[in-house]
């Protein structure tokens, strides 16, 4: 195809995609049926992981829960069963350990079957300035928040590709789009999570596997205890998010094959501004918005 024809094609498709987005702004997308799908959620022992499990359960899914907190998973399993899950299985799994991820993944495939919706939710934050953070905690942050995504994809994506059917959900953070003062290691891990999910999603499209969908979730601080003590300067613009609201929005994004979910909606504007403002203006804007996390926001190593 010559340059002229390819350019015309791109322009016409660009117009169509924008018209399509405009239509969907007023006409809700049809939700897909996920009854019977095998949904694996990491970090399911509490917080957003537990709430997502309850939401997915309402659609008669088969749930697979991973966490290092067995008692927490038992409670999540009980709540999910009472909310309509067809089956619930739970496994102790330290997602920071590659060999354990592969071992437990093989067990899941033998006992439950192929996972068709993978939700990488497990995450930790150290709560220390970069120079104060021990190397061991930085390594743990990277292992849980991003390296675990590599290993779970390696374990479960082949079956999705073979069937051209599945959904990859990455629970990242707004800190994966905008650097935050006081969260250097956390931001690095979440930037990596966003980039990794985007890249694999593009690989799938390029190889014709458009039946395997991707959803990347980037919320502001959620009131789950992970950022206890943190406050927002402008709660109308950047509120601390309610966990139930976030969980419902995530499931809606999955059901409608939404690729990017930024919460609150103001994050779309803020993330866009980051890409056009020069460095000093970004710093000034960050100070104005108080896009910083002080060390006293963190009482301990936290997980969601």
From TrEMBL:
Positions of transmembrane segments: none
Recorded GO CC terms: lipid droplet
PROSITE patterns with a match to the protein in the record: ADH_SHORT
Protein's name according to its UniProt entry: Short chain dehydrogenase/reductase family 16C, member 5a
Gene Ontology terms, MF aspect: oxidoreductase activity, acting on the CH-OH group of donors, NAD or NADP as acceptor
Record's keyword terms, sorted: NAD, Oxidoreductase
Gene3D superfamilies for this protein: NAD(P)-binding Rossmann-like Domain
PANTHER family recorded: EPIDERMAL RETINAL DEHYDROGENASE 2-RELATED, PKSB
Protein family membership: Belongs to the short-chain dehydrogenases/reductases (SDR) family.
InterPro entries: NAD(P)-bd_dom_sf, Sc_DH/Rdtase_CS, SDR_fam
Highest rank taxon of the organism: Eukaryota
